[in-house]
Amino acid sequence: MSSASYPLHVPVFLEYNAAAGASGGASGRTVGTLLPSPAPFLIFVSSSSQRPLLNNVRIINTSSASAASLKVTPLTPSEMKQHGVSASMASSVIHGFDPTTMPLPRLDRDKAEARLARNVARIAKMSANFNENVSDEAQSVFDALSRTMECAWEGDRILVRVSGVIIDPPYKPENAKLVDKDGDKRAVERMQLVLRRTRETLNLPL
């Protein structure tokens, strides 16, 4: 049974028990209001406060409820008075759950601008790391190396900045060499080892 079969947006008595599929498995008789919801569920909102953003929300599965275990009865004016449900409280219960009436969260401009700057920098780095003039194999080697060290493209060559090593196509261990011939030769040996392991991981020929 859909929510349209029940009185919506009006103060009602809801009588239910655990067999009605109420979240939490509780039983009772509560004053509140029903909101539109997809079958077979009912959204029941109740509140003991006149503050519009403080509500209790219960989701009921009507497919597991019998007519005897779930009963919805609109309140009469005298019952509203008897149970202390004023017109303003009823409005609070009905409209307080409406997301269109809720205030927007405060925007922290500094955090928003910092997040924007990080995203711009990330996109710029991704763009700089992509070389449309090399093969997929070359790009995959570059991407693997750049995960653990700072790399840059110089034409179709890969420059590893920290090591001072540059790698020529086809990016095999023997293609690694020092940018400065007087540099640390151990850096080349380490890079050759890294290249060998990288190509093995990527299932590329050595």
From TrEMBL:
UniProt cross-references to InterPro entries, sorted A to Z: AD (IPR047574), Lsm12-like (IPR039683), LSM12_ABD (IPR019181)
Superkingdom in the source lineage: Eukaryota
Residues in AD domain copies: 105-203
Protein name according to UniProt: AD domain-containing protein
Species name: Pycnococcus provasolii
The organism's taxonomic lineage, starting at the top: Eukaryota, Viridiplantae, Chlorophyta, Pseudoscourfieldiophyceae, Pseudoscourfieldiales
